[in-house]
């Protein structure tokens, strides 16, 4: 087997930047409505005790930046349009950082979500945080643009704790890695 | 000295016994005390499980490393759970009544969450649920996903098992279950999921919408392969990866309700003509679409059962469903709609003479319906654990 | 260290029979009211979704024997007066047998519970079933006669998966090992 | 070849980026896009944790082998959870701000639930929550219980740790934390729990109601020991094993509310005279008694906080409580009753200048009250995980 694990460290940004399949992007854009309230996988709802998942007594977390609006402890937050797992914001990390004690996966799946404040479509990298067991807080599952496992980086069912020292999954971040070329209207 | 001290400690707690036959001031109605019961005592299962039994995979989100498979008697009015099989860390499970074995494909760390990684397939006896042996999978590459059945499959008349790998390089390991060895590994760039194909081989779904069929030789190496182009449109009409099997024919449904059968009986997969849609109905916003994790099931004959969400739209494919639609594959018509008691994630049918529709709900409860009438029969409580996401009828 | 593990296999019945501290027994008897509804540890209540623990949608399990009355899937069943854990009756075993795939611990803690049908005080051995992870069904905790850890066999906080191949805890049985000498009125 | 295939697969999924600085048709209010964020990025904690931080042990009944300790900021209006430390299989936890370390004493199996057993103490850095090292405990004898603080304790100015063993033979292992070695083992027949005593030693509670104090030499071996008779009446008035500590004085409460202080400052434990009862009150059936898992706390000065159940009777001692009674140890009088929002299992006080009363509820929620007034301040949600049973203020 070729040694992919080292190579994959360069994937997240590298591959994403190097490609430009606009047709897919346009399709993604057409289906995103960042301001709506999204349903989540029933297990997420049940586990969170909230009709939309992610609730469970968590006080809202705001970025403080009007250009990045919404509650980062809620599944409905705009960056979470294709997230699947526990929100790191509720686990000791933040929307873009892993909790202490974990390691951030260098490779992951990618979503394209529209920011309702500036109406731009951002490419969001859902890097998993690894090496600590399931956080157990703020379970969310949203699947806008999610495709079956034949398209790995568009699929959130994989355990993306790959290329990390441990593949144990703790939580998921939603990191801005760029603005999509063809921003949806 | 140590021994003495412990005996002393125990005796100080003062528990005293008489013979169970000794006279006691009980009610006259029960002249004799209840008998002593043997220790140790461990229950066993029948070597051949009844057709009402299923395996329900609990993904266990709050402790993914401690997933389980519950052995469940769907006909039980009490005690639906018959036993629990370990299914650690994004495990996959296979069951073979012919072999009398349940197999789990799992990952372990020497310090639970850290340390040395070991991937292994464990072989469990169906009658005792005790491990009979294991096959260690080298290289730390076993694919970890929310559980799909098609990541761990038999071929070669259940003498071999196929394990999906993902690092994210994709490959399939071939395991000889009798010699308990990994005998080969087939590279599978750009393809995923494993559908047993022909006497000895498999097919996978590929990123461009094609199928890729591999025929294996007696040593487990690929002896031929073939690409079948344009089987699915992954952008607009992707197939759920988990089909319903009628013999060697797999019935797939797409995110938008298109039914496609694929024949895996030969060395090369063969999509069958006559694809059709499950149809539409009122009462949806914006429309009915399949939704859940395991969304299609069969009675083994002409009927398909599809779990449907009334909130169908892009991204709704894992939201779960509130109805099961029954489709006749001969007439390509919907013949019934079964309303569920709650939003469900997974459905399957038992292989009983009069099959039951087993429904794993999002809140963790498992319901049993009559597959012919749709009528609710009973709830099995949380017999599938915290997050039941996959139901297997052996 | 002396090798206790083998020796402990003989403990459960042997020690219990060989002792006769009637004062303690009498005290135990005085505090048992087998027919009452017992509260359980709040965690048991919360986990089971039932005010008394052990419910969670489980259909009643009857012995079929009028001399052994009650629901063996309920924390209130008379034999469970000092149980702490998941009821094996809900896990693939029964009130007195372990589920398939587990191993029954040869040593455990002992309670004395009154059978409301025959009014006898039975000595109940709460043997744990080991080698499979937490069953997760019918969590109960009752503590009649429970004493701190200085009295090991009167304490249900120990993991009694001792002397077994694995110390992983699955569920607890409630086995009749005899009738108490001084049956309470 | 493999590389190429994967790149192809990824590119087919079609994600395209422009520079974040590129013009985008955004609202005029935000002429620039949000900036890219760095990958990887992992949060760190302050080397010295604020006094509002506590550690909450989640026993995790539904996956005991996957227990955890949550690091929680009780002053946080959002993000109360600061991180999670593994606490596997009936683990115990110790924290030392002086050492900058959290220690966990755990048990692992090579195949999660079976295989080779390893007991080990892991040393975690308080600033990174990363492991710095471990001390393997030989013999498979580490005591596994629902977590008690007094099963894992420091002595010798936090240079050593003491680990309780139970097979059911009882002993205490002495660990040198700097050399990361087990240096001795002290037999402890008939006794349980570990209370650090004097400069270098410990005391345990014994089955006949006595205390047993052991003084350790520089090599970790016992150099003297002493039994203190009749400290507690285990039949009628047993002490909860977990006391509240004011320096080297431990305040115990009994199942029936009797308060007993024990001074552990010297080489031999010394029960202090002046035992008294928390008292009674109306509204109970049959009476108020302490109830829960961690039922007594202190403000570090004269006030004790005791978690009380209104359903006090034989067997109620773990039922949890609905009120916290505040007791002045100087006047031996109850000075306040704090009604809780729900039945609680564990209480503790922060070491802030104005201490907060932290309440872990039976339903898993964690509440913060003002310790002086009893007023509810905030809920921390499920910041202690599924089954929060022990709260530690470092």
UniProtKB/TrEMBL annotation, chains A, C:
It catalyses: 2 oxidized [amicyanin] + methylamine + H2O = 2 reduced [amicyanin] + formaldehyde + NH4(+) + 2 H(+). It comes from the Bacteria. Residues 70-178 form the Methylamine/Aralkylamine dehydrogenase light chain C-terminal domain. InterPro entries: Amine_DH_Ltc, MADH/AADH_L_sf, MADH/AADH_Ltc_C_dom, TAT_signal. Signal peptide: none annotated. It is an enzyme of class 1 (oxidoreductase). Pfam families: Me-amine-dh_L (PF02975). It is found in: Periplasm. Its EC number is 1.4.9.1. Pathway: One-carbon metabolism; methylamine degradation; formaldehyde from methylamine: step 1/1. Keywords: Disulfide bond, Electron transport, Oxidoreductase, Periplasm, Signal, Transport, TTQ. Belongs to the aromatic amine dehydrogenase light chain family. Methylamine dehydrogenase carries out the oxidation of methylamine. Electrons are passed from methylamine dehydrogenase to amicyanin. Heterotetramer of two light and two heavy chains. This is Methylamine dehydrogenase (amicyanin). The lineage of its organism: Bacteria, Pseudomonadati, Pseudomonadota, Alphaproteobacteria, Sphingomonadales.
UniProtKB/TrEMBL annotation, chains B, D:
Its main location: periplasm. It comes from the Bacteria. Keywords: Electron transport, Oxidoreductase, Periplasm, Signal, Transport. It is found in: Periplasm. Pfam families: Me-amine-dh_H. Residues 1-23 form the signal peptide. SUPFAM superfamilies: YVTN repeat-like/Quinoprotein amine dehydrogenase (SSF50969). Belongs to the aromatic amine dehydrogenase heavy chain family. This is Amine dehydrogenase.
